[in-house]
Amino acid sequence: MGRAVTVATCALNQWALDFEGNLERIFRSIDIAKSKGARYRLGPELEICGYGCSDHYYESDTLLHSFQVLEKLLESPATQDIICDVGMPVLHRNVRYNCRVIFLNKKILLIRPKIALANAGNYRELRWFTPWSKARHVEEYFLPRIIQEVTGQETVPFGDAVLATKDTCLGTEICEELWAPNSPHIEMGLDGVEIFTNSSGSHHVLRKAHARVDLVNSATAKNGGIYILANQKGCDGDRLYYDGCAMISMNGETVAQGSQFSLDDVEVLVATLDLEDVRSYRAEISSCNLAASKVNPYPRVKVNFALSCPDDVAVPTCMPIQWRHHSPEEEISLGPACWLWDYLRRSKQAGFLLPLSGGIDSSATACIVYSMCHQVCLAVKSGNADVLADARRIVNDETYIPEDPREFCKRVFTTCYMASENSSQDTCNRAKLLAEQIGSYHINLNIDAAVKAVVGIFSVVTGQTPRFSVYGGSSRESLALQNVQARIRMVLAYLFAQLTLWARGMPGGLLVLGSANVDESLRGYLTKYDCSSADINPIGGISKTDLKNFIQYCIENFQLTALRSIMSAPPTAELEPLVDGQVAQTDEADMGMTYAELSIYGKLRKIAKAGPYSMFCKLINMWKEICTPREVASKVKHFFRMYSVNRHKMTTLTPSYHAENYSPDDNRFDLRPFLYNTSWSWQFRCIDKQVNTL
Predict the structure, then answer these.
(1) What average pLDDT does range 308-320 have in this prediction?
(2) Residue 516 above 60 pLDDT?
(3) Is the same domain home to 561 and 597?
(4) Is pLDDT at 278 greater than 70 in this prediction?
(5) Is residue 585 part of a domain?
(6) Residue 188 counted as domain residue
(7) Do 48 and 15 meet the contact criterion of CB atoms below 8 Å apart?
(8) Distance between CA atoms of 41 and 84, rounded to whole angstroms?
(9) Over the Cα atoms of the chain, what is R_g?
């Protein structure tokens, strides 16, 4: 009797609608799994077409090309003698489902549709798919002719069933089903399923990885079993970074762990596990045995195949390991860096350009690019041929080998300090020193001539010359003059991104990086169409507090000593005139709130779903030691006024790496009006009434 089963799971860097590339990566994962003795291979959710197809799921082409890829997989010798579990959309009786297609030796065993769809935050699966609501029910699915010709099957089982092999029983979950309160693995386990599989499209959020790991381990801790998780990895075409973490767990303990951040397009985990360990674990859980006697059985698809060998007593099996989690600072260093690399190589551009102000935000962005260069050099050193080929194409040199992160940074990263008469020498020096330490190609320029020209046009047309407040002008005049500076920097950033390499006699263009953090976006503390308007923004989902901690991490781990003075300087936009040669304007004074307060407002508004009144009620307790109720009321009102006045800016927010669950990203994550009644009269009256009572 076979007892040692060898199974494989993987994390693949799939790309939406890249059917050619997706197929090649699936084949590579199957080859690796088979070479390591696996008899079952699990891939990520919707891996054939790529998870992030969005409204392309509506197109019949997406379904057609997915079946064409499936045809290639079915007919290939590479997929023989291993159960392959792949993900793709399937239309059944004119209803579109998110499915797993499980096949063996040119025969489809089961098409299993997703039961619980992800439809919160960044996920919109109910827009494109319908959940399968017929529990433990199987129907006939009529295969397309191109598949019939390969398999010789006219129909195959479609629905909520499990696979019964010669030696064990496997049940399928798909991503969200693991997170659901009534996960299928609960009753599948009671019905004798020993191996649970989960194909995910789960994206990175700071401090989230442990939740996924805990869920997987807890799935088998109560009732035993083997749990196999596959996940998408990388940037597949939008704001999300899918963070891998493929894993295999048994009886509540991790036995194989995949990387969370990596430049490897294909990562395969293989584990050999003893089924008798599952059976003995379950034998002494009497409560589960009693519940099992009452469970409604699942339809079983019989498979004439074994995941084990007949004589496997001497086969070594895997032992539990301790999962290592990254710190938040490491996550910021690695996640956005990998996202940037995917974006750079897939956009076929020659590098990045960053307006480097000498402040924390743009410096943190520069450090993330430097971290990307570091990851590229490490990947090439470890023998990653894909990364080497991409690096050579980006720098336009077929013999190039990236070995030194600073030298590679010089080739792919341009930084630009855009001074004005309101800029201090301190920020100029900080930007220059940081550029030297990371190795970027650095440009110093002055924007005063362009600012004077634009303001001059206004003066000629109107006969009026606006002045800053310190020179007697109104707040409207001062703000307009600040905005002109900020917007000219955006125009110049794009001009230099397009033509800097041309001026240096090099081919290609550069992607412009933005550097507005999540807190400033929430408050609207940015000029619409200024340097926050860029191609992509790696820190747009990260708080100021986390960025400061990341800067400290870079000082210690990358030896970037230039960051020390940047850390100690108060954040400033440097858009108002200097006073005695020193900066008089600071961000927190301008905003009327601290960055620490902003993070709290953001989490209460989005994560706790608090409007003005609920936020006030929560904060009078949170801040009772430092603020009176009336002070809390004033702070909450100021935040909501500023948030609602500036919400329109979110409609043009640069696509940002998603890292925080209180992001104000208007594109799909945080859907709100952008024209508010900014007086909030009813809500604020409720607050005032409560203040008077208190």
Answers:
(1) 84
(2) yes
(3) no
(4) yes
(5) no
(6) yes
(7) no
(8) 5
(9) 28
What is the distance between the alpha carbons of residues 507 and 349, in angstroms, rounded to a whole number? 10
Give the 3-state secondary structure of 103-130.
Answer: EECCEEEEEEECCCCCCCCCCCHHHHCC
Question: pLDDT at position 2, please?
Answer: 66
Q: Choose among 199, 250, 215, 226: nearest CA to 11.
A: 199
Percent of the chain with pLDDT over 90: 84
**How many Å apart are CA 505 and CA 61, to the nearest integer?**
42
**Phi and psi for 458 in degrees, rounded to 5?**
-60, -45
Q: Which two tokens stand for residue 230?
A: 């596959």
Catalytic residues: 45, 114, 175, 357
Residue 221: pLDDT band by 50, 70, 90 thresholds? very high
Which residues 6+ apart lie within 8 Å of 286 measured at CB?
Answer: none
Report the first-to-last Cα separation within the chain, whole angstroms: 74
Check if the beta carbon of residue 434 is closer than 8 Å to that of residue 363.
yes
Instruction: At 376, list the tokens.
Output: 């590229």
| pLDDT at 365 > cutoff 70 | yes
Question: What's 164's domain CATH number?
Answer: 3.60.110.10
Length reported for the chain: 694
d(CA 190, CA 225): 10
Is residue 391 domain-shared with residue 512, that is, in the same domain?
yes
Same-domain pairing of 637 and 565: no
Residue 352 pairs with which residues in a beta bridge?
413, 511
* Structural domain containing residue 252: 4-302
Enumerate helices (H) and strands (E) in the chain, giving the number of each.
24, 20
The stretch 176-180 carries a mean pLDDT of 95
What is the arithmetic mean of pLDDT over 226-234?
98
Residues 604 and 479 in one domain: no
Which amino acid, residue 479? L
**pLDDT of 584 higher than 80:** no
Residue 224 CA neighbour count, 13 Å, CB half: 23
> How does pLDDT run across 79-127, given as a tens digit for each residue?
999 999 999 999 999 999 999 999 999 999 999 999 999 999 899 999 9
Residue labelled with tokens 């850390």: 567
Inter-CA distances, 263 with 31, 405, 655, Å: 19, 15, 21
Give CA–CA dist 423/445, Å, rounded. 12
Question: What's the average model confidence in pLDDT over 659-679?
Answer: 85
Quick one: pLDDT at residue 664?
Answer: 82
316 has a pLDDT exceeding 80: yes
Q: Where are the alpha helices (DSSP H) in 248-349?
A: 275-283, 286-292, 328-347
Helix, strand or coil, per DSSP, at residue 276: helix
Nearest to 158 by CA among 192, 114, 189, 191: 114
